[in-house]
Design brief:
Length: 276
């Protein structure tokens, strides 16, 4: 914290926090109370209580707070989001959310629950849950059912160790049922397997990574046996969330209600960890 205090004394307009998750809340609240806007690498904090504390600190300080939900800014994701929201797919009823990583994290603190808040769910599943809720305008999550594993062994609810595989179903207000699968160290046969699909009575849309890439995504619209490609890589989307925050900071550093979306995502992750 001494190094942080010295940094905050430098007259910053904004601070990017990319430290271990256990440090996020204290560091962010310190910066916000000093009148400094904050941008987070995900997750914003280890759980919903810490997340809400940070959001409330931003509200009290009237400072801009944002989180790196970077996949929202990918061209492929934007393409299917516009279709989902247009009503073209008819009545929405299902979603498929997949993020398998063949490697897992490269820093030891990710596998320490006290430092990270969890394993693959809070590291990878957070992106999937955010996209689902964001694309559907944050409906209420009515029910959650989940199973967590570490090295093939089933974990109890609210485990003390981090999970490397998780499956969950989320029932949303409005009738959408979503199935999520995510993992570290997965035998995927490629670097990553990332898929996000939404199903309706009049068709479906999907985003899928191409060739096992973490960054190259294609978007598809599907009707029966027909597939229309909407977007193909390349698309240099990786830094757009941070750029968006920085651009907003140049026009207004005031509190943005959209940061409360992070608390809704954190609530859903907490229910996945609790098993329901």
């Amino acid at each position: 914290m001494r190094d942080l205090e010295a940094l905050l004394d430098a007259g910053l307009d904004g601070l990017v926090i990319a430290t271990p998750s256990a440090m996020h809340a204290e560091q962010a609240i310190t910066a916000l109370e000093r009148g400094i806007a904050v941008f987070f690498q995900r997750p914003l904090a280890r759980d919903a209580a810490e997340t809400r504390a940070v959001v409330e600190a931003a509200r009290r300080a009237d400072q801009l707070l944002a989180i790196d939900f970077s996949y929202r800014f990918a061209g492929a994701v934007k393409a299917i989001a516009s279709i989902v929201r247009s009503g073209e797919l008819g009545r929405l009823f299902g979603a498929e959310l997949v993020f398998h990583n063949a490697y897992g994290p490269d820093k030891a603190w990710f596998r320490d629950r006290a430092l990270s808040g969890g394993g693959c769910v809070i590291d990878l599943g957070i992106y999937l849950v955010d996209l689902l809720l964001w694309m559907l305008d944050f409906p209420q999550v009515q029910a959650v059912d989940s199973r967590l594993f570490a090295r093939g062994e089933r974990l109890p609810p609210s485990p003390e160790v981090v999970e490397d595989y998780a499956m969950a179903t989320l029932e949303l207000a409005g009738g959408v049922f979503a199935r999520m699968d995510c993992s570290w160290d997965h035998h995927a046969g490629r670097d990553a397997d990332i898929r996000f699909g939404v199903f309706g009575t009049e068709g479906s849309v999907a985003v899928e990574n191409v060739g096992g890439s973490f960054y190259g995504f294609a978007a598809y619209r599907r009707d029966g046996t027909r597939t229309q490609t909407l977007v193909e890589p390349p698309d240099d989307w990786g830094g757009r969330a941070a750029i968006d925050w920085a651009q907003r900071l140049t026009t207004s550093a005031r509190f943005d209600e959209r940061c409360r979306e992070a608390a809704a995502v954190a609530d859903s992750l907490g229910r996945i960890y609790r098993g329901g």
